[in-house]
Amino acid sequence: MRLLERFGEGTIAFLEYLGGIFSLVGESIRSLVHAQIRYAETFVQSYELGLGSLLIVLLTSLFTGMVISLESAQQAVQFGIGSLVGGAVTYTSVRELGPMLTAVVVAGRVGSAIAAEIGSMVVTEQIDALRSMGLSPVRFLVVPRLLALAFMLPLLTIFADIISIVGGMWIAQAYAHINPATFISSARQAVGFDDVVKGLVKALVFACIIAFVGCYQGLSTRGGAAGVGRATTSAVVISIILIFGTNFIMSYLLFGAH
Amino acid sequence: MDASIYARLDDVTLSFGEHVILKNCNLDIVRGAITCIVGLSGAGKSTILRLLDGLIEPSSGHVYVDGHDLCHTPERKLVDLRQKTSLAFQFAALLDSLTIGENVGLPLREHTALPDEKIRHIVDDALESVGLRHIYDSLPNELSGGMLKRAGFARAIVTRPELVLYDEPTTGLDPIVTNLITDTILRLREKLDGTAVVISHDLHSIFRMADYVAMLFEGAIIAYGPREEIRTSTNPFVQQFLTGSEVGPIPV
């Protein structure tokens, strides 16, 4: 009986969470449709959330491209197909690791920052103050962060793809003596423009996940400093799980037919 | 509703789960007067301000402000009604990322089409009326507690609301700043010619500024009347609260 109660409570909590997120999405869409956008704040958020993440995204992607190249070049050269390494690195980076790793890094850095900032505003009554002044916290806080991430995450993903391929090409040449021209030729054969676009579509969806989960966790913060800590941790954990799950579904839908 | 009553809590009950905060609470806020609400910490005094500002809804009962029932009112309608009401928060609740001037001018920027120069003029006037000059460009974290509270007052009055709600304006301040804050509230009432509700524990300050005093105990108003009536009340709860005695009907 107790197990059943817990299951019921868990189900209700999950449905409440889902309802809260959908309500946030709905209100954000309404703000966007009515063009209630704070452009200056969106620009500031784009700078802080996007540009601030550039270095860590570049470093992560560089080493990821290098390690894919290192592993695949060793095997490929042994089997006499070293000319295909460029394709393997580019294919993996553009379609999967570029968008996903960038999103995971940004979820860790930005999702947590969003939840912490908004959570602190909740516990210091700043959100109540906004509502008391007749201002919507969604229009004031959520929409600028959503737009900033929706714009910056695909952009960061492009940089991540490029640096990952460059890193892979460098290791392929240094470690397996694969000519850069061969590497690039293989990459161009393996990946088309539509693959790049689909990767960016993934990035756009991941941006929405990070923004909505971070903002929702922040807005539903309860219980002072400890609550802010819980909101921050939950924002990162939930975002990353959703990113991995959504990545699988989107890969199936976008690339499954190939 | 009687025209002399600006706001009313009508048989309001508010509970979160099994925790009952207000129980069949009734309170009239007289138009043009300062009503102070006193009571033990955690009695639900700040909750009454949030109900009057439409930030929360009662579990049952009704909250009327200037004749409008705030209960079951859509958020968009509440946004309009909140133009008549302002809440000065206990810790000011100014937005960290904005300067004092931007904070105070925020309601005007968002709700009016006034030009920047006009907004600047109104904000300067609001800051002046709370005794704060030359802090337009300061950030909230650069101000003392008393200055922050007064900056919060400036934001609360900048739209010239009909009802100003002050949540513990003197808590945690030294006697000199407490006097300054009390004077400011009295001066703002004169300036706005409006109604005010003040939550406070500072009896000296309360009996200086209140026209009416209400005492909240166990979720209900147990005493209400003009300040002199409350000061001389024989109600044992009121007496114990005013004298600060540990002996009496209020459990310690």
Describe what this molecule looks like in 3D.
The complex is a heterodimer of chains A (258) and B (252). With 258 residues, chain A is mainly alpha-helical. Chain A has one domain. Chain A contains nine helices and no strands. Chain A is elongated. With 252 residues, chain B is an alpha/beta fold. Chain B has one domain (5-241): 3-Layer(aba) Sandwich (Rossmann fold), CATH 3.40.50. In chain B, 37% of the residues lie in helices and 26% in strands. In chain B, the strands form two sheets. Chain B has a six-stranded mixed beta sheet, sandwiched between helices. In chain B, strands 2-1-4-5 form a four-stranded antiparallel beta sheet, with helices on one face. In chain B, a hairpin with a 2-residue loop joins strand 4 and strand 5. The longest helix of chain B is centred in the C-terminal third of the chain and has 18 residues, at 175-192. Chain B is globular and about 55 Å long. The model of chain B has no long low-confidence stretch (mean pLDDT 90). The interface between A and B is medium-sized, with 12 and 23 residues.
Entry keywords:
heterodimer; A: mainly alpha; B: 252 residues; Rossmann fold; 6-stranded mixed sheet; 4-stranded antiparallel sheet
* Helix/strand structural class of chain A: mainly alpha
The CATH superfamily of chain B is P-loop containing nucleotide triphosphate hydrolases
CATH class bucket of chain B: Alpha Beta
Specify the helix fraction band of chain A. Answer: over 70%
Largest interface between protein chains, with number of residues from each side: A-B, 12 and 23 residues
The first-to-last residue Cα distance of chain B is: 38 Å
What string, H for helix and E for strand, traces the elements of chain A in order?
A: HHHHHHHHH
Largest sheet of chain A: none
Topology:
The complex is a heterodimer of chains A (258) and B (252).
Chain A: H1 2-33, H2 39-50, H3 54-78, H4 85-123, H5 126-132, H6 137-176, H7 180-190, H8 193-219, H9 224-255
Chain B: E1 5-16, E2 19-30, E3 34-39, H1 45-52, E4 60-65, E5 68-69, H2 75-81, E6 85-88, H3 100-111, H4 116-129, H5 145-157, E7 163-167, H6 175-192, E8 195-199, H7 203-209, E9 212-217, E10 220-226, H8 227-231, H9 236-243
Parallel strand pairs in B: 3-8, 3-9, 6-7, 7-8
Antiparallel strand pairs in B: 1-2, 1-4, 4-5, 9-10
